[in-house]
Amino acid sequence: MKGTVTKSTGSWYDVLVGEKKYECRIRGKIRLEGIKETNPVAVGDFVEVDPETNTITEILPRKNHITRQSVKKTGHSSIVAANIDQAILIATLQQPRTSLGFIDRFLVSAEAFRIPQIIVFNKMDTLDEDNKKEISKLKSAYETIGVTVHLMSALKKLEVEGLKKYLVGKISLLTGHSGVGKSTLLNQLSPGIQQATSEISDFSEKGKHTTTFAEMFSLDAETHVIDTPGIKEWGLVDMEPQEISDYFPEMRELRLHCKFGSKCLHLHEPGCAIRAALANGKILASRFDNYVSMVEGKDNRK
Ligand SMILES: Nc1nc2c(ncn2[C@@H]2O[C@H](COP(=O)(O)OP(=O)(O)OP(=O)(O)O)[C@@H](O)[C@H]2O)c(=O)[nH]1
Ligand SMILES: [Mg+2]
Ligand SMILES: [Zn+2]
User: What's the pLDDT at 302?
Assistant: First the structure.
């Protein structure tokens, strides 16, 4: 029987077949073409299940998947989800603070896997006027490069309905730091969802890693949202320094005009179209700085 993996703990998996949920294990080793991990079953995977023994016997071909480097520089990567239509970053200006570096790494990762991105700034209710101005500047900056940005408060239920229109008929992945309100949002999306949430720590102003497994929830037959554990960093996987600017939409076309073409890393090379655009204010300084840190990070690893 064919089903969809809705929860993955690493040792057992929930598989939804029609309306019925099976708690399954994997027997032996399953490999998937083009994937390094053995037993790489992820939430969102379509699988073949043996209902007699509750085992997953096969992973069906994927439309896509998204992977991130989980522990820095060990080369260990993990599959976050498979067969998703879009990735939604839940970001907060404070409690906890989501840095622009984190946002840009998320965007680059999703872009590299050709997964459309949405940025949601949550906890708008906690912001003063200056903070709100900062957010609205960020909103226009990211919209200029083609990313959808939505402002809301999950706790106060402000603009949660407005977010729903982006979710309808799609499989969406929620990601972000611990404590930004991913699970709070899910609970607001449907009365049937009761994910645990907890207050962020007073001391560190960081979340407490309340959600520990990725899990997919259905809002209706065609609309699904995946809650995930909070993460510290979106580590880039399998990327050459030369390809990183391809995943910055505002650099992708411009880079063709660099004197050294696709060899240009836009660092110190002469005749660089990207640095010219930066000097003219056509590329945001923070985006360029984050680009440089991604390139340098990749170089160090060699
Ligand atoms: N003021 C305010 N607090 C919020 C909002 N959304 C969530 N919170 C609070 O932030 C805290 C963390 O929320 P969670 O939903 O547990 O965060 P999470 O992203 O699921 O965290 P992990 O599961 O640890 O990754 C809780 O105390 C929520 O009540 C919001 O819009 N405004
Ligand atoms: Mg959570
Ligand atoms: Zn260049």
Answer: 42
